Amino acid sequence: MEIDLKNLDAKQIYKLMTSIIVPRPIAWVSTISKDGVYNLAPFSYFAGISSDPPLLLISVGRKDTKEKKDTWQNIEETGEFVVNMVTKEILEKMNITALPFDREIDEFEKAGLTPVPSSVVRAPRVKEAPVNIECKSFEIIQIGKMGIILGEILKVHVKEDILNEKGYVDTTKLQIIGRLGGANYCIITEENTIELKRPDKR
Fold first, then answer.
1. Which of 79, 131, 187, 195 is 20 to 30 Å apart from 27, CA to CA?
2. All domains of the chain, ordered by start, with CATH?
3. Contacts of 38 (CB under 8 A, 6+ apart)
4. What average pLDDT values come out for the chain (202 residues) when binned by 10 residues?
5. 149/146 Cα distance (integer angstroms)
6. For the chain, first and last CA: distance in Å?
7. What is the pTM of this model?
8. CB 79 within 8 A of CB 137
């Protein structure tokens, strides 16, 4: 079957892409507004794009009212944000923060989560998350209705029990959640990973 995207509307294209480009890590982004209101929202159009300089990317859309989502507005206003990683234990709380709350609502309170101070940015970290990545805005590129936000990584907080003997994160201990299509998610565990080393040059 051949699918011509010119024959699909934006919603159909989104559903097609998110069912093919899987699994996607979830950027659970915490920000603070210029008025001091905390915001927390998940985004699965998320990737690391450079290590020198250390940059990541999140793609943030608009509300039904066509306004920029609170995450986008807050990053424009403050230039800062934190990406918190999602595990099985906090998946349901993450799902609560995906609801379209009004701008003055604190999603930390709604989801029963604990905001803790970051080291170098004003935006809080999610205490319950095993990894927190403090970022400052590097560049925001507007493409159509989307804001492509490039963040420079400043500090990374990692719970020690998921580190390996070399001091890096053991992905199987982290048991990160991946976003699939529709309402589906996956969990990366030791049982469902494959180790495959690169072959020697011949």
1. 195
2. 22-160 (2.30.110.10)
3. 30, 31, 32, 106, 107, 108, 115, 123, 124
4. 92 92 94 95 96 97 90 97 96 95 93 97 97 97 95 96 89 88 89 84 70
5. 9
6. 39
7. 0.92
8. yes
